[in-house]
Amino acid sequence: MMFLNSPEGLEWKDHKPVMRGLDDLEMQVFYSISQSNDEILHDQASCFYKYEQDEIGVETFNTPTAAYSAYPNKMILNGKVVNKKALANTVNTVMLNQGRKAIIKAKENVEESIEKINQEVEKQLEK
Question: Which end of the chain is more exposed for a tag (fewer CB within 10 A), N or C?
């Protein structure tokens, strides 16, 4: 579970979707992790996503992976299936972190916009 719990030293290398029709989409993720003894471990994980689309539409042709769930229902790490509860907890943690980052970014954008407006108002008042 080192991969799920300690992202320090983790470097994403590549990913590759493997689509098998209406079966689960497999997203193969390639990564390396720096070990404490300066050894670098290269490995792969696979996340599986359920097919969820009822009808094939334009979006499916443009973005075929859009037909699948946004959340993995299964993960294989180091050749072992990750416990569903551990996977769910990890997905929840990732989603919360992404949500926090999005809120922080939105707040920064609003503050920056307010500052620009204030500067423009001050310029207009000086005229």
Answer: C
